[in-house]
Specification:
Elements: H1 3-28, E1 38-45, E2 51-52, E3 62-68, E4 73-75, E5 82-84, E6 101-109, E7 112-121
Parallel strand pairs: 2-7
Antiparallel strand pairs: 1-3, 3-4, 5-6, 6-7
Keywords: Signal
């Protein structure tokens, strides 16, 4: 291979690598700022909500909020990513409460877990 062809090949490889590095950098870090990370989550029953024996558990009555490392909080809106450990609740096969009582319901979002108190009263 001639010296000219070798030089052109090297220049093309350098151009490809430089372009790749620039594109990866642009995609990974918008405006040079890091995105905030989740520090913890908090789950709360929506104000005014009552859970009664005979009624079905309704996860929309629970809000989950993430505390971020930049000091802000944000509502977790990816509902399908929130897991509720319903095994601690007294539910029938249809998902309806069968017993009154106070239950500590574990709530998980990604790698974070918290609990929310669910108070079930007689109908």
């Amino acid at each position: 291979m001639s010296l000219f062809k070798k030089s052109m090949l090297v220049l093309m490889l350098v151009a490809v690598v430089a372009t790749s590095v620039a594109l990866v950098g642009a995609c990974n870090d918008k405006d040079g700022e890091d995105l905030p990370n989740i520090e913890s989550i908090k789950a709360e029953v929506v104000s005014g909500t009552t859970f009664t024996v005979g009624a079905a558990f309704d996860s929309t009555k629970i809000t989950v909020t993430a505390k971020l490392d930049d000091g802000t909080t944000r509502a977790v809106e990816t509902v399908k990513a929130i897991y509720y450990d319903l095994s601690v609740l007294k539910l029938d096969a249809g998902g309806k409460f069968t017993e009154a009582g106070e239950y500590n319901l574990p709530v998980r979002y990604s790698d974070w877990t918290t609990t929310v108190v669910i108070e079930v009263t007689e109908a």
